[in-house]
PhoX family phosphatase (Castellaniella ginsengisoli), 678 residues
Amino acid sequence: MNPFDLDDIPANPSRAESLDQMLARLEGRRRFLRGGLGLGAVGFLGGLLPAAQAFADSPSGRAAALGFKAVPMSTADTVAVPEGYAHAVLNRWGDPLAAGAPAFRGDAGDDSAAQAAQVGYNHDGLHFFPIDGKDGVSGSSTEGLLVTNHEYVTPHYFFPQGVQPGGTGWSLDWVRKAQHAQGVSVTHIRLDAQGRWRRVEDSPYNRMIHADSPLRMSGPAAGHALLRTRADPEGMQVRGTFGNCGNGWTPWNTYLTCEENFTDYFGTGGRPDEQAEYPDEDYRRHMQRYKGGGKTADPEYAWDTHDARFDWTQEPNEYNRHGWVVEIDPFDPAAPPRKLTALGRFKHENAALTVAADGRVVVYMGDDQRSEYIYKFVSEGTYRPGAAGNRTLLDRGTLYAARFDGDGTGLWIPLALDTLDTDGRRLGARFNDNLGELLVKTRQAADAVGATPMDRPEWIAVHPRTGEAYATLTNNADRGSGKARWPDGPDHPGADAANPRDKNIYGHIVRWREEGGDPRGTSFQWDIFVLAGNPLRHAEGDPRRGSAHISADNTFNSPDGLCFDAQGRLWILTDGNDKNGGDYEGQGNNQMLVADPVSGELRRFLTGPRGCEVTGITWTPDQRFVFVNIQHPGDGPDLDQAQAEPLTVSTWPDGPAATRPRPATVVIWKKDGGAVGT
Ligand code: FEO
Ligand code: CA
Ligand code: CA
Ligand code: CA
């Protein structure tokens, strides 16, 4: 395990068994689904999963042709794109956000004040908002706001002074610098006459919303006692968004940023764990459910030592104010971003939004930790183009957790106060009959109703025509291990139909179709689109187990980022093991591939530099340009080498003479001016 990969944090439990009471309540719907498909119970080791035929029958799901020649696996410290394509780098970590802002130096002169005026670190989800757009996707293809998540910092590259083991060497300025580099950047970019994308340096839109910026709480949990702190006795005003992983966007032109590994920064103020008492048993259970039992902050960070609000022994509720989806209006720098508590609190990966026929808004979300859940939110109100009320649509609605059953059907179970848990008790009884408390403790609610623990849900993407949803399950080495998901919790479950491998080191992609094609529905059909891995090394990589065509030449592990283009091609971005040996032979550096969701054709489009993750993808409306993020170059299985000789793993993108790698955005275009991917 890579200790710098903050996505790789063990923890969590559950009784995922179906219970009689719930089955009785839901049996009617299940009979309908089974009858409609003519399905019987099918063991998960038995060939194609039963719902696959339903997906293959969907001609409208077929992608336009994959019109490029695949790039080979790579171990080089560079970005490679197909013949006929070109790429350029923009928005490197440390690039100034405004004219007059400090330039990146790469030495001890890069302090917290400089960082606040520069592009942040470890780029993740991103979205291009056309400058003249109103709906998030249409408008100019030559000028717009590029909004980018910055997930965390890699200390030994981020601090030129070098980081000491165990987090020693940190100061308050180091904490502030790290806080200023995490969050969301908004950059105004424009295509110049030479065909190069450049920042508009004097634009009023350019800014960082970082881990010390003012935000507001919104939705059912806003103001709840669990969100009140000494600095904010109303529980309404919060400082900071951090751990910003994947993203989403709305048709009313706003950006959604997802707080993922928020737990790593909270600890006991640098004191030994044994000196820290939990305030009470409920607090212990709640914190351990999210933090995996650990009391101290991640040893790579020392925020809790230098910034008291991250010391939970002093400010126990600050912890509850993070782990949400945040809505940002990139076109209104004066409007404080809002934390959307109606969408639940967990380690949010991304937020894939679709609109039902009646205008209700549906948001699919994954909780990225081993053996965690998939969720969706259905709004109470309806979307109307241009309506002012769209701005509060994500504040009221119903949150659901997914249960994937072995017969290829599934259920969305409402996390509502009146839902019966697997013991037949009202969920409300566990949460003082308060929806705000339930949402703060979303995972505990999903445990109680028997949601299915999945292999680290990462991104979800919705097909633009069929409405089918695809979700990456990046890997789960703990499945079937017998290890506890958290202290006093159940063990990680063994393989099941939707997560068919014990010790799943390669990951897979699952997809579902809502009953009647209605995203508001409470039941669905599902199958496995692809089991990733190396078919030469691992029999479970057999392509017949999924619909897509893994081969020895065209393989990958740990799918993470995921996006459909407007023609229905599925773009798969990876964050996996790139040691290129043993079980990972033939996979090389992390990469981006394209798949046809119906034929299963799969082709590698891009390889990244050494040690990087490829993540985050967005398009200009004309699809002539695609923007992709390169996160944590120089990281990965060569970490030991990186610590011994920090500059030898990667110096991308500045070249061999550079002092350190820099996360950045890459823009790719077809030299003949055609749409990317055609
Ligand atoms: Fe930030 Fe789960 O990736
Ligand atoms: Ca990663
Ligand atoms: Ca990710
Ligand atoms: Ca990941």
Residues 350 and 652 are 26 Å apart (CA to CA).
